[in-house]
Amino acid sequence: MFILAEATFWEWLIETPIPLIFGFILTLGGLVLILGGSEIIELEKWIHIKSGWKTVVVGVIFLPIGIFLLNIKPPAPTSTPTSTSTPTSTSTPTSTSTDRVQIIEPKDNSFFDNQQGEIDLKVAFLRPKKDEYLWIVNNPAGSKDWYPKCNLEDRICGTPIKEDVWLYKYWIKNGRGIHRIHIVSANTSANLAFKNYLSKALETGDWPAEPLPGGAYSLTKVTITVE
């Protein structure tokens, strides 16, 4: 807290004329003391200055401090880039670059044996925005079909292993082919569509192909091959 307050005070100080004023006074004073103390110029007639090496030393100290203060400039203002919203679409979206979500494991373009049954899916994510839901969704390569697997904050299929990082089990048994595992942002209506699909699929064991619902788009993805 002290360091922060000190930095804030310094930022405020250099934006005021105070360093310039003191810099001018110290620079002028340093020159006067050096010239008067060394008797290069006789100033005792106008200013009460004792000549001698002590006066010169004080002038030598004042002069660089004054020059330093005169050269302090306020920092240039930094521009803040404006963000653009990502449009939603019912067509197959491309992944959107985001700092809020990252798939840590598996690595992109990894290969797995389907006999493993399941693999670890490790995801780092920040808490979703208001009325936003994050889902793990599989989009097989070469198709427009989307299969919702799990809401990122559902503790039934995911386990928090450390701050902002969760571990999930991704089923690959009998799932040969190329899997494009997406983290999808869904609004309220898309989230409801995903929940209804998942509930019915788990009840019946039937996972029909469905297009991505409106109000949902991919934030990031990894591609894996199951052999």
Describe this structure in words.
With 227 residues, the protein is an alpha+beta fold. It has two domains: 7-70, no CATH class; 101-226, Immunoglobulin-like (Sandwich), CATH 2.60.40. Helix content is 30%, strand content 26%. It contains four helices and nine strands, in the order H-H-H-E-E-E-E-E-E-E-E-H-E. The chain has a five-stranded mixed sheet with strand order 2-9-8-4-5. A hairpin with a 2-residue loop joins strand 6 (158-162) and strand 7. Helix 2 runs antiparallel to helix 3 (53-70). The longest helix is centred in the N-terminal third of the chain and has 20 residues, at 18-37. The protein is rod-shaped. Residues 1-7 and 78-97 have low confidence and may be disordered.
Range of helix content: 25-40%
The tally of strands reads 9
Give the overall shape: rod-shaped
Average residue pLDDT: 75
Supply the CATH architecture of the largest domain: Sandwich
Beta-sheet strand percentage? 25-35%
Number of helices: 4
| CATH topology tier name of the largest domain | Immunoglobulin-like
CATH class of the largest domain reads Mainly Beta
Oligomer classification: single chain
Q: CA-to-CA gap between the ends?
A: 55 Å
- If strands are numbered along the chain, what order do they take across the biggest sheet? 2-9-8-4-5
Low-confidence stretches: 1-7, 78-97
Give the count of structural domains: 2
The biggest sheet amounts to: 5 strands, mixed
- From the alpha-carbon coordinates, what is the Rg to the nearest angstrom? 34 Å
Order of helices and strands: HHHEEEEEEEEHE
The helix-and-strand class reads: alpha+beta
